[in-house]
């Protein structure tokens, strides 16, 4: 588990996936697409356990949490 990050640079979701493989990542969203989906952000925290991650960013606004790796289970059967 890593501590919350002080101030990180803006990265695309693909860059974040490469820098934080197989971890849950919380980002402060800095850019969204036309549908409102996150496209870029600043990493606030990462953790192997999404519940610990949630506790680290509970007071943040406009946060997106996602898994930066292959799905842990099949999405489609």
Summary tags:
77 residues; alpha+beta; four-stranded antiparallel beta sheet; 2 helices
Describe, in plain words, how this protein is organized in 3D.
The protein is an alpha+beta fold and 77 residues long. It has one domain. It is built from two helices and four strands; from the N terminus they run E-H-E-E-H-E. A four-stranded antiparallel sheet has the order 1-3-2-4. The longest helix has 7 residues, at 13-19. 18% of the residues are buried.
List the helices and strands and how they pair.
Blueprint: E1 10-12, H1 13-19, E2 24-32, E3 38-47, H2 50-56, E4 63-67
Antiparallel strand pairs: 1-3, 2-3, 2-4
Short description:
It is built from two helices and four strands; from the N terminus they run βαββαβ.
Order of helices and strands: EHEEHE
Question: Rg from C-alpha positions?
Answer: 12 Å
Got a strand count?
4
Structural class: alpha+beta
Spatial order of strands in the largest sheet: 1-3-2-4
End-to-end gap: 32 Å
pLDDT averaged residue by residue: 86
Count of folded domains: 1
Strand proportion, as a percent range, falls in 35-45%
Low-confidence stretches: none
Number of helices: 2
Q: Which word captures the global form? A: globular
Largest sheet: 4 strands, antiparallel
Amount of helix = 10-25%
């Amino acid at each position: 588990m890593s501590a919350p990050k002080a101030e990180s640079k803006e990265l695309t979701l693909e860059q974040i996936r490469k820098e934080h493989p197989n971890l849950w990542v919380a980002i402060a969203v800095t850019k969204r697409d036309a549908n409102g989906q996150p496209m870029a952000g600043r990493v606030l925290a990462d953790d192997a356990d999404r519940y610990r991650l949630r506790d680290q960013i509970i007071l943040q606004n406009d946060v997106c949490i996602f898994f930066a790796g292959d799905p842990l289970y099949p999405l489609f059967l």
